[in-house]
């Protein structure tokens, strides 16, 4: 049987206010999955909760039938750019090299082959010419490419990206989505918190649609429908057409 990513009865609250309520879903691995919903819907919270980056009030998450604790080295996470300290004094090639650390083992330092692999990951995202730049000197799109290269350097099986396309140039977005599709084609599983509804059908295989609760989950054609999108976004049917949702 195909492996799955399973979330069961997930509850999250901040200061006593419930932000995710009883979310459960099961999706096959090897898919490119978009997480959609209006502002404040809990999209980023869901991703962080799936990775145990924030405490849960309840719920379980398994990846390929395995608990998260046993899958840490197989997971790569790219946070929102707004959550990264771009003034930190580190250059591009060393940022990507950090992606090799989870597989090195305790008290081991990167060797020549690890540095060569980090450089190859930079080449994949088209950023090798910036390897000696400080990360704070780069544009938003360039920064996002570097952090994707760091994720690639981990040789992960599961990739989680939180709003990777916000505030970046078209060329960088094209590079990033092409790489994510390539990862999917290699059998990797990719989750992306996303906001641009006009590109949903061309970017993703499956969708998770939520507004604090789960509204829809499954193949794009099953979820990206006017009645479900209206339930999530509270937008009248005519406006949904302008946002790229089929009528």
From TrEMBL:
Top-level taxon: Bacteria
Keywords (A to Z) from UniProt: ATP-binding, Nucleotide-binding, Transport
Give all residue intervals belonging to the ABC transporter domain: 5-237
Q: Which CDD domains match?
A: ABC_Metallic_Cations
- Fetch the Gene3D superfamilies from UniProt: P-loop containing nucleotide triphosphate hydrolases
Enumerate the InterPro entries for this protein: AAA+_ATPase, ABC_transporter-like_ATP-bd, ABC_transporter-like_CS, Metal_Ion_Import_ABC, P-loop_NTPase
GO MF, any single term: ATP binding
Family (UniProt): Belongs to the ABC transporter superfamily.
Protein name from the UniProt record = Manganese transport system ATP-binding protein MntB
Which species does the entry assign this protein to?
Paenibacillus aceti
